[in-house]
Design a protein that fits this description.
There is one protein chain. With 523 residues, the protein is mainly α. It contains 22 helices and no strands. The chain has helices spanning 4-24, 28-39, 52-69, 73-78, 80-105, 111-121, 126-136, 140-168, 175-206, 210-230, 235-253, 256-283, 285-290, 296-323, 329-334, 341-348, 354-361, 375-404, 411-436, 442-461, 471-495, 501-522. The model has no long low-confidence stretch (mean pLDDT 86). It is found in: Cell membrane. It is a multi-pass membrane protein. The chain crosses the membrane at residues 27-45, 54-76, 82-106, 113-135, 182-203, 215-247, 268-285, 297-321, 342-365, 377-400.
Length: 523
């Protein structure tokens, strides 16, 4: 009871914080981190010491899994070059530069532990990128690149952190051991992820009960991660591969009822976990400061140097990576030279999050031969990077996006493409109906024809302006009033005892499904 109470309190605060952020028009992650920072100094407020194992194996897998499920595999493949340049190249570059700067400032620290901190602060966080980028309204390709980077870069950073930690505690680390570690972590993660997609895809295809499908979807990220970690492969890579493959094939694997239920379930899980994660990050401030004993002048200098390095290395890497690649004719033909606005906004969106803090807390307690080192300082530096990038850059990202006036995705083109494909889909539906028309009464066939025509007309109506109400909007408005009236009758009948509760529940379910469809049409 006592151990459960703080969790309930944190979830309630995270929910209220997210609601407050929406009311104020602010980004929820920033509000929750600031709220956590403030609550960390409230006397008597419950504190939770963040367990890195809980984050990396308990919280991160489901968030990575749902992000991978929603990632477009064709868009991911089309942007694989910039994604890998950021997720692998930039992470390694940032880690080595941060490690070098820290080693120059603290020459008594071995370079290996400095490099370990560089690996900790190098990767932008998957949770932060997903939570912030979409809400800011960035162009679709920018969001794809940021999300793709955040899905892959944790694996690069954690492999590098593992190698640096091995060197820190005195293990011999040569090129052969590094190659084996990379092959085992990355290659093993890909194989386990592909195997997970094969096994769980088979199970999803055989399951017909939406509740069982939903339960399986919750088990998948943990099963894949536990298997990968047991075999010393990358759990991050494994869960991302499984999520990408299953997400791409989900329309063929699940029934309509399962897809609707799983979609609603994962929206709730992501909302709660994201809110809890950002709140917990802020709440760690008191714990981070507790063991810190560095002189204030030295602390400010080192913190500023690391923050500046993390911020600048992203831009130093991005511009050459963006424009030097266009010197290759094949790249230039496939991908035109972008405006400088794009590397600027991608550079500004490098928010760190809970993975950075969890990795920092996983740093070794001592160096080789049990030699002590300022571990609390390194944890503070990681925490400072999180707060600076998430609160500083995250809060100003909407303003930067507006000032840059990035070209937005054309809603008219999207509507035109959707209408054209809907026209083809309606033609296919009409052809199938013509084949089966003799097996049903004429009235039923005519009703189905009208339904297909209405769906096609609705798609083309979206190309019109917003000056007047379309026929579909008028239908939705009037049908909503009719649904409300039907609900009143069923509720009155239940209250008077004319129908049992079960009849009311079924009637409400049917009306709720129709209303939810009306809401989707209005979007």
């Amino acid at each position: 009871m006592e151990s459960l109470f703080p969790v309930v309190v944190f979830l309630a605060i995270a929910t209220l914080g997210a609601a407050l952020a929406r009311r104020l028009g602010l980004l929820a992650p920033i509000v929750l981190v600031v709220l956590g920072l403030a609550l960390s100094f409230v006397p008597g407020f419950p504190q939770i010491e963040l367990d890195p194992e809980l984050v990396l194996v308990g919280i991160l897998p489901p968030l990575l899994y749902v992000a991978a499920l929603e990632t477009s595999v064709p868009a991911f493949k089309n942007n694989i070059r910039p994604i890998l340049l950021l997720a692998v190249g930039l992470v390694l570059f940032t880690a080595f530069v941060v490690g070098l700067v820290l080693h120059l400032l603290l020459p008594q620290l071995p370079f290996a532990i400095c490099l370990a901190l560089g690996a900790v602060v190098a990767p932008p966080d998957a949770v932060a990128a997903t939570a912030v980028a979409r809400r800011v309204g960035l162009p679709r390709r920018v969001v794809t690149i940021l999300e793709g980077e955040s899905l892959v870069n944790d694996a690069t950073a954690l492999v590098l952190l593992r190698v640096a930690t091995m060197a820190t505690v005195g293990s011999a680390v040569g090129a052969d051991k590094i190659a084996i570690e990379v092959l085992r972590s990355t290659g093993g993660g890909i194989l386990i992820g592909a195997l997970g997609a094969l096994v769980f895809g088979f199970l999803h295809r055989r399951i017909t009960d939406p509740l069982l499908d939903n339960a399986l979807s919750l088990i998948i990220p943990f099963a894949v991660v536990f298997t990968a970690e047991h075999l010393h492969a990358s759990g991050v890579v494994a869960v991302v591969v499984t999520g990408l493959v299953l997400g791409h094939k989900l329309p063929q694997l699940l029934s309509a009822a399962s897809r609707l239920q799983i979609g609603a379930f994962w929206r709730l899980v992501r909302f709660l976990l994201e809110g809890l994660v950002f709140l917990l990050v802020g709440l760690q401030l008191r714990e981070v400061l507790r063991d810190l004993d560095e002189p204030i002048g030295s602390l400010i200098l080192i913190t500023f140097a690391v923050l500046a390095t993390v911020f600048l290395t992203r831009f130093i890497w991005l511009f050459p990576a963006t424009y030097l690649a266009r010197l290759v004719p094949r790249v230039r033909r496939r991908d035109a030279r972008p405006s400088p606005k794009f590397p600027i906004i991608i550079g500004w969106a490098g928010m760190r999050g809970v993975v950075t803090l969890a990795a920092a807390l996983a740093l070794p307690l001592t160096l080789a031969d049990d030699e002590p080192y300022p571990r609390a300082l390194l944890i503070w530096l990681a925490f400072a990077v999180i707060v600076f990038t998430l609160v500083g850059q995250g809060a100003t990202l909407p303003l930067v996006a507006r000032r840059l006036k990035l070209p937005q995705d054309d809603p008219v083109q999207d509507a035109l493409s959707a209408a054209a494909v809907q026209q083809q889909a309606s033609k296919a539906a009409q052809d199938r109906l013509d084949e089966l028309a003799d097996s049903a009464p004429d009235a039923v066939v005519d009703r189905l024809r009208r339904a297909v025509e209405d769906r096609t007309n609705m798609a083309w109506e979206r190309l019109g302006g917003d000056e007047r109400e379309t026929p579909s909007q008028a239908y939705g408005r009037l049908r909503q009033e009719m649904i409300d009236a039907e609900r009143d009758v069923f509720r009155a009948a239940r209250d008077s005892g004319r129908i049992p509760e079960e009849v009311l529940v079924q009637a409400y379910r049917d009306l709720d499904l129709e209303e939810s469809l009306l809401r989707e049409v209005e979007k």
